[in-house]
Amino acid sequence: MISRSLEWFGDLGSFSWKVIRAAITRPFELREIIRQFDEIGSKTLPLVALAGAAVGTVLAFESRSTLVHFGAKSVLPGAIVYSIVHEMGPIVTGLVVAGRVGAGIGAELGSMKVTEQIDAIEASAVNPYKLLVFTRVLVCIVVLPLLTLVTDFSGVFGGWIAVTLADPISFHRFLDKGFSGVSFSDFLAPTFRTCAFGLIIGLVACFQGMRTRGGTEGVGRSATNSVVLSSLFVILADVILVKLILIFFP
Amino acid sequence: MTHSIAEANLDGNRTAGIPAEPVLALRDVHKSFGAQHVLDGIGLTVVRGETLAVLGRSGVGKSVLLKLIIGLENMDSGSICIHGQEIRGLGLNEMNRLRIKMGFLFQHAALYDSLTVGQNVAFPLERHTKMPASARSACVKEWLSRVGMEGDLNKMPSDISGGMKKRVGLARALALRPEILLLDEPTAGLDPITSGEIDDLVLKLNQEHALTSIVVTHDLHSARTIADRLALLEKGKVMMEGSFQELSESNDDFVREFFKRDS
Fold first, then answer.
1. What is the ipTM for the molecules in this complex?
2. Among the partner residues A117, A123, A126, nearest to B104 by beta-carbon distance
3. Which of A100, A140, A218, B12 is geometrically suited to a Cys-Cys bond with A198, CB 3.0 to 4.6 A?
């Protein structure tokens, strides 16, 4: 088990090195990058918006009863906004993207691998690490913070809906109160830590896809492993990055 | 038991007095996957304009041989020279420069399933030429028309049959006008009529473009039709090389059994 894990990390390291080498050479595959922005970004947007709204709503419902109990109902907007911007938005986005995009990339590249399409790309003198991997990893890194903004907004909006159902409050006032205790660094660092989530999701999913073996069963295994491993590493990275952010942005 | 009668025959087949230029030369090539020795000292030479058919039982390493030549697999030891250039130890850029001179038809065509038939054929042209879109489109149409697929330009690979996929794969392999053509089971799994059509097509294209080809096949009829010379692999080695007639008249038990079973 330990040797297999070490072997996996070793292979991932070698894979990453190939991607880095591919990334710094021409051509830069702009057309594929744009296609991946649509695949990874646009098509995940409704999902993260929905997930964010659901999280915001549940957070408002759950927090309200506790805060009312302690007579701190007035801090409810601040608590919701802070929780979403600081933690819930980034991690929910990371996990939703790990699920949708991780599975998609793992299955797509896995299927290409077992049907020799990746070999065909290589035989055509095109570097598959550039065309297939670098483009997806780059788009994941860039798109995650943007999707996090969407999750944050829809989370705050969902929270406002839940709050206003019990105690009507205008959205403008809700935002004023909510953001009064949130500084720019509270927003910036957590949002940009999702770049690391994007790197993890893109790299792990592409790695699992590109090492697929064993026909359709192997494709299924790659898709599952992509989701499980990228979700796991996103959570682990979150723990580490939260600690680092607390150190560097106290 | 290894017979090596090919080289003597080759000079006889080619223009008398002019030594044929070797385009591909494999010497003592070994390849293993784990404990399994697939290729155990293969040596082959293919000269300019020649078509070599590689025969052998399933799992004997015929497809691996093609993948070693185009650099999709790395050999354990030995030497593969393409146009006199040793490919062992070549960097990615140098290998890609050689790959551009080679066309590869995969056993199951390996068409990119997210691209249309036309886009599949255009792929190598987009990557390696500076053709304007209109010239590229004309070139794609021309190649598709050569393989009888001009009406299927906008179809997806999932919408065409196995034989049609092979034709498109062939058009894609030829799009950059390669000097060397590597065909992995071009007629496998096809009905006799479609197999015959593919054979005729390969033969015609080989003749028109003076291609140097290696064709991996189980199909003796196909090998007889398109190849100048045959190499029979067994136990990781070249068991026998020669013309179809020489192999079919061999006294070796294995060769006779192979030809008898297949016929």
1. 0.86
2. A123
3. A140
